[in-house]
Amino acid sequence: MSARDRQRGSALTATLAATAVLLPLAAFAVLLTRLDFYVHDNTRAQAEVFYVAEAGLEHALADIPRGESLEQLLTGPDGYAGSADDGVFPFREGSPRSFPRAPFGYQVRVERVNSQLLRLTSVGSGARHARATVEALVAADSAPYVPAALYAPGVRAIAIGDFQISGFDRSGTDTPALPALGVDSAETASALRSNLSADASSRLVGDGGPPSVAKVDSIGLLGLIQTFGADGRVVRIDPATLPSPVQLGTTDQPQLTILVGDPTLTGSVQGAGVLVAPNGLVVEGSLAFEGLVLVGGDTTFGASSEVHVDGALWVDGVDVILAFEGRGAMISDRAAVRAADLFLPGVLPHSIVLKAWRELF
After folding, report:
1. How is the chain split into domains, by residue range?
2. Is 184 exposed, middle or buried (0-12, 13-18, 19+ CB in 10 A)?
3. For residues 42 and 122, is the Cβ–Cβ distance under 8 A?
4. Spatial contact of 216 and 147, defined as CB atoms under 8 Å apart
């Protein structure tokens, strides 16, 4: 064998040896590239469904009406306990079929942890069967929910004389202002604002005013009136038999008072706590009250009346007429409403607030 042939054989052997070494390395590099692609793709899919699940949780938290109770959240979209949808979160407009687009979506459920806490669980799903779960603990706020200084969801008309309605808290703290008048729809708020005179508009002060008239989250006033009426501590009073002056509770000893019979107050009335007038309210004399006043129907303060309410005035009924023709003021005082809530715990609505959240792995 010539020297040239030996050289060629050595070169071939070296080439084959190099190929034998490089081919596995190349295959390994391709495998790593492919694996990296799958890891990156799966990581992206998992990150996407995490954000979808988080969006579902945020949607649920934002969709809870501020006057909603923990029990109402547990009854599902149909609002009836013991039905098949119990535990499904009751989105106001129904849970979206996909978010932000197919195949992504989320489902949110509610369950009780204890008497004070609920657990919201949001499960996000997406491409390649990716899933992620986040949960939150929510509880009722310690302070009662106050939608407005004057809350009258079904008001049809309002007349204001020498009377002011203020959503600015009486304590003068940095507490955010409330609407002076809270109603059940933006259309109602717009209609009332357009029908108010310039003078009447200037007398409705607070958030967004003047005139401070706004749509607010609803609360079940009829249920509140019925609950207070069934309370064992209630004092029932016929206004026709009241002496003048009369004291219906004090800030140190608040009282739950329900007016029966003709709802017309003609003398001098003072009080604190909760005052309920289920058949409407007419004031021809003077009324000074600190706390919460609930009225079921038309509310009239006569031209010769003087009314001062520090706290909140909530009026139930459809097509209600409010005529505040006398002197005085309805001034927001959330401390006074909270005192009424402490006096009669478990009755007034409380906002539901977030306590904690986490991702489940």
Report:
1. 1-144, 150-343
2. middle
3. no
4. yes
- DSSP of 269-328, one letter per residue? EEEEEEEEETT-EEESSEEEEEEEEEEES-EEE-TT-EEEEEEEEEEESSSEEEEE-SEE
8 A C-beta contact, residue 45 and residue 127 = yes
Q: Is 315 helix (H, G, I), strand (E, B) or coil?
A: strand
Q: Whose structure tokens read 């906002």?
A: 351
- Cβ contact 149:180 at 8 Å: yes
Give the number of other Cβ atoms within 10 Å of residue 211's Cβ. Answer: 26
Q: Where do the H-state alpha helices sit in the chain?
A: 3-63, 70-74, 186-195, 198-202, 221-229, 334-343
Which tens digit of pLDDT belongs to each residue from 165-207?
999 998 777 788 999 999 999 999 999 999 999 999 999 999 9
CA distance 77 to 107: 13
How many Å from the N-terminal Cα to the C-terminal Cα in the chain? 70
Single-letter code of the amino acid located at 278:
P
- Rounding to the nearest 10 degrees, give the CA dihedral for residues 233, 237, 243, 246: 40
- Distance set, CA 346 to CA 141, 248, 341, 349 (Å): 12, 22, 8, 8
Whole-number pLDDT of residue 69: 81
- CA gap 349, 347 in Å, rounded: 7
| Nearest C-alpha neighbor of 192 from the set 217, 170, 218, 165 | 165
Helix and strand tally (H, E) in the chain? 6, 21
Q: In what order do the strands lie in the sheet with 117-125?
A: 105-112, 117-125, 131-144, 350-360
Question: In this predicted model, what pLDDT tens digit does every residue of 30-69 receive, in sequence order?
Answer: 665 565 555 455 677 788 899 999 999 999 999 988 888 8
